[in-house]
From TrEMBL:
<dbReference type="GO" id="GO:0043235">
    <property type="term" value="C:receptor complex"/>
</dbReference>
<keyword id="KW-0472">Membrane</keyword>
<feature type="binding site">
    <location>
        <position position="234"/>
    </location>
    <ligand>
        <name>ATP</name>
    </ligand>
</feature>
<dbReference type="Pfam" id="PF01064">
    <property type="entry name" value="Activin_recp"/>
</dbReference>
<keyword id="KW-1003">Cell membrane</keyword>
<dbReference type="InterPro" id="IPR003605">
    <property type="entry name" value="GS_dom"/>
</dbReference>
<keyword id="KW-0464">Manganese</keyword>
<keyword id="KW-1133">Transmembrane helix</keyword>
<dbReference type="Pfam" id="PF07714">
    <property type="entry name" value="PK_Tyr_Ser-Thr"/>
</dbReference>
<dbReference type="GO" id="GO:0004675">
    <property type="term" value="F:transmembrane receptor protein serine/threonine kinase activity"/>
</dbReference>
<keyword id="KW-0675">Receptor</keyword>
<keyword id="KW-0460">Magnesium</keyword>
<dbReference type="InterPro" id="IPR008271">
    <property type="entry name" value="Ser/Thr_kinase_AS"/>
</dbReference>
<feature type="compositionally biased region" description="Low complexity">
    <location>
        <begin position="1"/>
        <end position="11"/>
    </location>
</feature>
<keyword id="KW-0418">Kinase</keyword>
<keyword id="KW-0812">Transmembrane</keyword>
<protein>
    <recommendedName>
        <fullName>Serine/threonine-protein kinase receptor</fullName>
        <ecNumber>2.7.11.30</ecNumber>
    </recommendedName>
</protein>
Length: 505
């Protein structure tokens, strides 16, 4: 057995203990004296917690206000046998053990307090009181549980429809991995079509929704956080499942990743019984859309060319087919407008919102049109779409329709470029010719019948860069689709313009 454990006790307790048991009894020289360990019961002349006796060594534990207090020391031979049998009286719980077999033998003694004695007689009334208390407590607990469940149910019901639960499921993504790391790994090791689905679903589950940053006809856009990194979360209305499906499919196309196309991170679909939540998670760009950016920002030639060149670079990547086993089909956007182009922190653009995109399957010469009820934005629709003369089975028709819309975007950008200290306030194309929310008829009247296009401010003629931009947009929005420039042609022209201006893009 281990050495005795010590319990703190007050000085008074120690002194009272001494009064009870006395110090070392004087012994005759012929008798063997025993050395004992003493604690809280040492004679005044003792050293190193030891004492000598002709009787017994003892260890005692007493109950003092619910706290067990241990004492140890020497018992004189006279009366010690009686004391060693003492088990305390009914008022005081204590236990005493004695020994004489060797010096310091009481170090090995560990007396324990006797159990508390129940009262011998319990009144019948007490039973009733106890029963009453038990029933009351149980009823209260039950009521609390019911109220808690009801509040939780109500909270779930009134919870914002778009909240991705923060789940600490680290199964597929080790801690410390950033989104950039994950995407780079998937590109170097996988098919180049994005993150594995299991990783996407894990990311989607771990996102914290922070605030709503936009709203459109398809749903809402939120700013969220994943492990401290900002992400954009596009939440589609249930009726827009076809758009969500098409956009997810296009983003996950092989070799789709490009610096001027919005970076796709993950997609997830959650059924909650009463509704379906469709999420698309992408890179977050704090400058917002080109539409928002142009409203609040003035441009110089360099900034204008940078926005135009990066936008057309993204469009060029979309339109281009890449051949090979890991090839990429040609894709047309079908809803190009300044609200669907985002501005990055470095002043370049990336193309977003691919819910209406069409793919060209060159092996079978087929155009893969999404089964989508949604149509493009009327203000940006080319004449052949407004007149319903677009050849839907010919993929080049969609490419040229994109170029018409891109011409209008160039006009929006150029108006915000300063020349001679002047610039125009931001306006949407055809702002002076059609109402705020134009109908097909309004647009057909202006674009197809009157064949009008956005007008150029006089100052453009005296600035070489803006004059060339004007020529470029005119060739993009030509009435005849066959006469329009391709994205690659526009990209090369803008690169040449930058070179002549000595601007590095």
């Amino acid at each position: 057995r281990c050495g005795s454990s010590s319990f703190s006790s007050s000085k008074e307790a120690a002194e009272s203990g001494k009064e009870t048991f006395g110090s070392t009894a004087p012994a005759s020289s012929s008798q063997r004296l025993l050395w004992c360990h003493c604690y809280h019961h040492c004679p005044e002349d003792s050293t190193n917690n030891t004492c000598r006796t002709d009787g017994y060594c003892f260890t005692m534990v007493e109950d003092e206000g619910g706290v067990p207090v241990q004492t140890a020391g020497c018992l004189g031979l006279v009366g010690s046998e009686f004391q060693c049998r003492d088990a305390g009286n009914s008022r005081q719980r204590r236990s005493l053990e004695c020994c004489t077999d060797e010096d310091y033998c009481n170090k090995n003694l560990h007396p324990t307090l006797p159990p508390l004695k129940p009262p011998l007689y319990v009144d019948g009334k007490i039973h009733h009181v106890a029963l009453l208390i038990s029933v009351t407590v149980c009823t209260l607990i039950l009521a609390v549980i019911i109220i808690f469940c009801y509040i939780r149910y109500k909270r779930q019901e009134s919870r914002p429809r778009y909240s991705i639960g923060l789940e600490q499921d680290e199964t597929y993504i080790p801690p410390g991995e950033s989104l950039k790391d994950l995407i780079e790994q998937s590109q170097s090791s996988g098919s180049g079509s994005g993150l594995p689905l299991l990783v996407q679903r894990t990311i989607a589950k771990q996102i914290q929704m922070v605030k709503q940053i936009g709203k459109g006809r398809y749903g809402e856009v939120w700013m969220g956080r994943w492990r401290g990194e900002k992400v954009a979360v596009k939440v589609f209305f249930t009726t827009e499942e076809a758009s969500w499906f098409r956009e997810t499919e296009i983003y996950q196309t092989v070799l789709m990743r490009h610096e001027n196309i919005l970076g796709f991170i993950a997609a997830d679909i959650k059924g909650t019984g009463s509704w379906t939540q469709l999420y698309l998670i992408t890179d977050y760009h704090e400058n917002g859309s080109l539409y928002d950016y142009l409203k609040s920002t003035t441009l110089d030639n360099k900034a204008m060319l940078r926005l135009a060149y990066s936008s057309v670079s993204g469009l060029c990547h979309l339109h281009t087919e890449i051949f090979g086993t890991q090839g990429k089909p040609a894709i047309a956007h079908r809803d190009l407008k300044s609200k669907n182009i985002l501005v990055k922190r470095n002043g370049t653009c990336c193309i977003a919102d691919l819910g209406l995109a069409v793919k060209f399957i060159s092996d079978t010469n087929e155009v893969d049109i999404p089964p989508n009820t949604r149509v493009g934005t009327k203000r940006y629709m080319p004449p052949e779409v407004l007149e319903e003369t677009l050849n839907r089975s010919h993929f080049q028709s969609y490419i040229m329709a994109d170029m018409y819309s891109f011409g209008l975007i160039l006009w929006e950008i150029a108006r915000r470029c300063i020349s001679g200290g002047i610039l125009e306030e931001y306006q949407l194309p055809y702002h002076e010719l059609v109402p705020t929310d134009p109908s097909y008829e309004d647009m057909r009247e202006v674009v197809c019948i009157k064949k009008l296009r956005p007008s150029f401010p006089n100052r453009w003629t005296s600035d070489e860069c803006l004059r060339q931009m004007g020529k470029l947009m005119t060739e993009c929005w030509a009435h005849n689709p066959a006469c329009r420039l391709t994205a690659l042609r526009v990209k090369k022209t803008l690169a040449k313009m930058s070179e002549s201006q000595d601007i590095k893009l």
